Amino acid sequence: MPDEQGRLEELLSYQILDTEQEYAFDDLVDFASNILGFPFVFINLIDSDRQWPLAGSGLPREAAQCPRNDSLCNFVVKHHEALIIPDAQADDRYSSVAVVCNEPHVRFYAGAPLINKNGHALGSLCVVDFEPREFPYEKVENLKSISRQVVAQMELRKQLIETQELKEQLKNHLGSLEEEKNISERFLKNLLPGNLSQQWLKNGSIEPLYYDEVTIGFTDFVNFTNNSLQGDPAELIHRLSEYFSSFDEICDLLGVEKLKTIGDSFMFGCGIPERNRHHATLSCLTALLFQRQVGELNDIQEKLGRSPWPMRVGIHSGPLMAGIVGKSKFSYDVWGDTVNIASRFEQNSEEERINISEATHYRIKQFFDCTPRGSIEIKGKGSTKMFWLDRIKKEYSGDKDGLVANERLFKILSLQ
Fold first, then answer.
1. How far is 143 from 158, CA to CA, in rounded Å?
2. pTM to 2 decimals?
3. What SS3 state is found at 91?
4. Smallest Cα–Cα separation from 218: which of 312, 105, 334?
5. pLDDT tens digit string along 179-213?
């Protein structure tokens, strides 16, 4: 089990085990029960040798207390992802678990991990029933969303405990000379996204953090390698800089982060380091503006007698870790399956098209017209659903091609 000792230390740091019932958590499980349409909902924390229920709906919370090895929530913590079991008694992987084969004879189970900002799964928000049930994708997303609210409430408790210590730490790191501080701030603001430069100046470091809702995109110029062999290197770099500089301006306009450039690929993301509920929508708007900008620049290049650079884009939404790499020549970077999948979606895209995942499509479909591509094999993931991002829906579009958002959409996204 990866870093189990670290996970247990994190859990204990919340000082929440064996505490009295609290209204905030009881309210969350009652809310989950109403939203999901299931009477039995629990917040279970997984200690070293037991499952301890923080809150319960439909049954007393004590009903969910059991040894860790007898718990289905233990599987959620181990695998660090949501677990849906339509009929546990009919599933050989879980039929021998004590809560399934013995009292209370659980049949249906759905659990989402309670993952804190350091990426540790502390427990699970789970729904159970005593007969087989189905649990569609929308309810899985609702369960995960409420699990994040549980973690947020736990963080508020923890912050109260740590407030005095944090004040002392901040005070100790604010003693540098004003001129040196200004020089450092100007440098770091150009190097690090968001307000991370301020964090670096205050703390002297930035620990990698877990982000559960992020959208990552990759662009790529098709046949760039062949084109680079035929042109003047200095002219090539100048032209690439022109394209990427325009991408920088679009990212700044929409509050999307430029993460890095890798050769002719431009990597961007939204939801890091500042969380944004509209991360997927803003990333898709960014990609559409990229396509429009590339089209305009390609028209100019063709008038100059040069070959156009057709671009393809891939986008995926999900969780990842992000933080600083290195100590002297450091950089901000992101890691995780979400990044790898976004890259695979770019590789499976086509010229002048934007290829998005099912996870991204779920978050943006109310604002955009998309075309299903069906399921396509990708390396390391097997058959995966893909969608073409075609345009902004007409009611939200500020131009006939559906590449620019109108005032109505900008207001929804709180950009005006």
1. 23
2. 0.55
3. coil
4. 312
5. 666 666 666 666 666 667 667 667 766 778 899 99
